Amino acid sequence: MLTRSRSLMIAAWTTLVTQIVIVGTGGAVRLTGSGLGCSQWPNCTPGSFTPVPEQGIHGIIEFANRVNGGIVVGVAAVMLVMALVQRAGRLIVTLAALILGLTVAQALIGAVVVWMELRPDTVGVHFYLSVILVGLAAVLAWKVVVGPAGPRTAPRWQSLLVHAMTLVLAIVIFVGVLTTGSGPHAGDGGAARNGLDPAIMQHVHAIPGYVLLALVLGVVVAAAVRGPRAHLRWSLALLGMILVQIVIGIVQSDTGLPVLLVGIHMVVSVVITALGVATVLSLRPSVRADASTDVADALDAAQAPASA
């Protein structure tokens, strides 16, 4: 029998939150120039696991992020153990195992980033994997809290619109990483940049961003007309966060890329990823017995005319 205890739900939410938070602490390392605050890995210095006074605040910031990484691995491990013990189902166990494995891999990639002295391509891979982990954690939280998907009731055009939105979101994040790799925040004064023109890249980044906005507006209108109700709620939340992100992007570009705004921009990008996952999954409402609202959504959609 599959179970969804409150403790499992808390573990799933904690997994998602910690995967988002470490993007913020990792961003703080880079934006404060602390990327090489610990010059070695796993030791902070050749002779010490922890930072030494000579490394100053940069060593403390980098080491704190490493400690946070250990917490994220621990949370992922607890999530997997709980999923196994509580017999949460093959999908949830698989997701939890994948998240744990990729989180450990992320720590190893962090070591490569240090060893390669913050090369922008390795830093980019480090961030891309964080985005993937947040997406997987969002799926995990959804499956644990909401439950398995119900029958497919959305018309094909609505599904294609949502998936087109997801594709463009991935492109926006990819171009955003390239844009960041061309800018001034290298993580250390001596770290290389990717050689692209940051002024041009800001405009290149904006183009798919506005395409994404148009597609999300389309998703919201489709959800308002067609449903399900949960899909409308999540798509509106996604729209709101994208509008916030656009404002942050414009302001940071016009004010010389202040570190605080750049850091917020990074965190909001993975929050948007999680909301995008929820928007996709809400297109097929759950039919779990204890999810009465989602059941009503599924029944309403199933009874709608096929031509709607």
From TrEMBL:
InterPro entries from the UniProt entry: COX15/CtaA_fam (IPR003780), COX15/CtaA_HemeA_synthase (IPR050450)
Keywords: Cell membrane, Disulfide bond, Heme biosynthesis, Iron, Membrane, Metal-binding, Oxidoreductase, Transmembrane, Transmembrane helix
Membrane topology classification: Multi-pass membrane protein
Keyword field contains Protein transport: no
A GO molecular-function annotation: metal ion binding
Transmembrane segments: 7-29, 67-85, 92-115, 127-145, 157-178, 207-225, 232-251, 257-283
Compartments, as annotated in UniProt: Membrane
Principal cellular location given in the protein's record: membrane
A Pfam family of this chain: COX15-CtaA
Biochemical pathway: Porphyrin-containing compound metabolism
Membrane keyword on record: yes
GO biological process, alphabetically ordered: heme A biosynthetic process
GO CC annotations, alphabetized: membrane
Annotated protein name in UniProt: Cytochrome c oxidase assembly protein subunit 15
Gene source species: Agrococcus baldri
Species classification: Bacteria, Bacillati, Actinomycetota, Actinomycetes, Micrococcales
